[in-house]
Amino acid sequence: MSVRLIATDLDRTLLDSAGGVSPRTLEALDAAASAGIHVVPATARNPVGLRHLQPVLGFDQWALCSNGAFGVHLTTRELLFSDEVPAEVIARFVTVLDAAVPGVRYAAVRDAGERFVAQDGYADLATFSDHKRDPAAMHSEPLEVVTGASALKLVFRHETLGSPELYRITRGLVDAGELDNRLFEMTLSGAPFVEVMAAGVSKASGLAQLCTRLGVERSEVLAFGDGLNDREMLTWAGHGVAVANAEDAVKDVADELTSSNDEDGVALVIEALL
After folding, report:
1. Long-range contacts for 263-267 (Cβ within 8 Å, ≥24 apart)?
2. What would the mean pLDDT of 182-186 be, rounded to a whole number?
3. Cα–Cα dist 269/240, whole Å
4. What is the pLDDT of residue 55?
């Protein structure tokens, strides 16, 4: 296939289990860029979570953040698009979930990923690696502040329930008709929280908008991923690749399987392509 753009998830896909990147993977990314291929991070992270990687990975062009909720140029800060969950949808979602599962804590991502509005008690459950933000620096707010405005992404977690279990419970509320999933998208990224975006938003929707801007055809896209939030992107791309450590649901939709993130799986595919 002719590839003009590579879109890759970061955590547990491009990055190894320690959150680093091998010299071999760096060389493969540099070779792709030198060949004129756009290399785009497509991540659940926000720009603040990309900044410490920039000196290592050299990402300084377009990035898809918050699971495709917005596209931003990492150097110029130009915002290509921004798709937010309406405040009324957030408020209804939180009301229903709170009634079903006491003890859930919420946070909202706003202002092109620069503002993180955390509910009182959310920081107590968080570590720096969760959001690449110091929990001690999170300004705790009453729940009505978190739900009182639109957001690029709503995240929620629980002290004792893991994110897969919390996702399953919330999906049950959708199946029971208590939550209308026509109004939002919900996914997991492998982080210890569940993520909610606007209806129709995914890494695939964000990638489609970026490709339109760059004049790249869908058939010219090579995408890599491992998590539930990567499924749509791998399905949409001309060629979707799952790393060996990917969720089974991701492997099921991939066109190709490669080695794990700890075994330079992304680099192996790029090397073969070039």
Report:
1. 264/22, 264/24, 264/25, 264/28, 265/13, 265/224, 265/241, 266/8, 266/13, 266/14, 266/25, 266/28, 266/224, 266/241, 267/22, 267/24, 267/25, 267/27, 267/28, 267/29
2. 97
3. 11
4. 87
Spell out a b/e string for 61-83, using b for 16 or more CB atoms within 10 Å of the CB, else e. ebbbbbbbbbbbebeeeeebbbb
Q: Do domains 5-82+202-273 and 87-198 have the same CATH topology?
A: no
> Residue 52 — very low, low, confident or very high, per pLDDT cuts 50/70/90?
confident
CA 64 to the chain's CA centroid: 8
Burial readout 127-161 (b: 16 or more C-beta within 10 A, e: otherwise): eeebbbbebeebebbebeebbeebbbbbbbbbeeb
Task: Give me the residue spans of the domains in the chain.
Answer: 5-82+202-273, 87-198
pLDDT tens per residue, range 134-172: 998 898 999 999 999 999 999 999 999 999 999 999 999
Tokens encoding 98 = 């709170």
The partner residues of 140 in beta bridges, in order of sequence, read 118
Query: Is CATH 3.40.50.1000 correct for 5-82+202-273?
Result: yes
Question: What's residue 1's pLDDT?
Answer: 79
d(CA 14, CA 4): 18
Closest CA relative to residue 45, chosen from 59, 24, 35: 59
Instruction: List strand residue ranges (DSSP E) for 133-269, in order.
Output: 140-141, 153-157, 184-187, 194-198, 221-225, 239-242, 256-257
First-to-last alpha carbon distance for the chain, in angstroms, is 11
Q: Write down the pTM of the prediction.
A: 0.94
CATH topology of domain 87-198: 3.30.1240
Distance CA 132, CA 217 (A): 33
Would you tell me how many other CB atoms lie within 10 Å of the CB of residue 163?
A: 19
